[in-house]
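Lab notebook: predicted structure, single chain.

Context: the supervisor wants predicted structures on file for every construct in the current expression panel, including those that have not yet been purified. This is the next one on the list. No modifications to the sequence; it matches the entry in the shared construct table.
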Amino acid sequence: MSTSVTRRTLSTAGLALAVGAALTLAAAPAAAQSAGKEKCFGVSLKGKNDCAAGPGTSCAGSSVRDHQGNAWTYVNKGSCEKTASPTSPTGFGQLKEFKEAKKS
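Prediction complete. Output recorded below exactly as produced.
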């Protein structure tokens, strides 16, 4: 095998490995949800959300304030509505996006 063919083969293998790793990372949120997790709105801290933070944001890590009502993070199933959220109407995390209550 010539040097250029060997390099091309190694480059192709490296690219395939990188694409495979990227696809595995992209599937992580789905795996987290199926492993006894649920989306909980209003409990993430600024920049620490797993996804969904409203219009104009890109997703994970894009929340602009603590306890944002339209940003969620994965928590253990059954724990969301027991987790404190000072902006939530109930004072706890929500399973659905909510309009934030004003802090007193």
